[in-house]
Amino acid sequence: MVKKQGSGSNATVSKFVQFSESLGTAYSSYLKEVNGNKQLLLIDSFLAFLVVLGVVQFLFVLLIRDNFPFNAFLSGFIICVGQFVLLVSLRLQLISPFEGISKQRAFGEFIVASLVLHFISVHFVN
């Protein structure tokens, strides 16, 4: 026998409650993970900054509606995305150590990759 769902507003409220509970659970799990680890907090705050910076750049191009410095926009946006990817990979390597890769080596590789990314971006702008 199939149960009939209640009114649409009850189902919506129930889904909203489930969504807010899942967000609360995810946030508490995140706080447990980064509790006392200042490296992860710094990486996560820089990740959030890169997301905000990328959104601001994209909105700026949408609002101006001119693509005159298009190379500069592409370079800046690619830097945001590339640095985000590099930081996420560094964060993953710091959380769960990879076999044969120490934390110092992971950080060194991150620095070299970031320098290469910025070097390419500067030459792209010309």
Protein architecture, described:
With 126 residues, the chain is an all-alpha fold. The protein has one domain (37-125). Helices cover 82% and strands 0% of the residues. Helix 3 packs antiparallel against helix 4 (103-125). The protein is flat, with a radius of gyration of 21 Å. The mean pLDDT is 87. It comes from Kluyveromyces lactis (strain ATCC 8585 / CBS 2359 / DSM 70799 / NBRC 1267 / NRRL Y-1140 / WM37) (Yeast). It is a multi-pass membrane protein.
Summarize the structure.
The chain crosses the membrane at residues 40-64, 70-94, 106-125. Helices cover 82% and strands 0% of the residues.
Give the beta-strand count. 0
End-to-end Cα distance = 69 Å
User: Any idea what the radius of gyration is?
Assistant: 21 Å
Structural class comes to mainly alpha
Percent helix range: over 70%
Order of helices and strands: HHHH
The structural domain count equals 1
Beta-strand share of residues: under 5%
* Total count of helical runs of at least 4 residues: 4
Largest sheet: none
Categorize the overall geometry. Answer: flat
Main location: endoplasmic reticulum
Transmembrane segments: 40-64, 70-94, 106-125
Subunit structure: Component of the oligosaccharyltransferase (OST) complex.
Family: Belongs to the DAD/OST2 family.
SSE blueprint:
Blueprint: H1 8-34, H2 38-64, H3 70-95, H4 103-125
Helix pairs in contact: 2-3, 3-4
Could you list some keywords that capture this structure?
about 130 residues; mainly alpha; 4 helices; about 0% strand
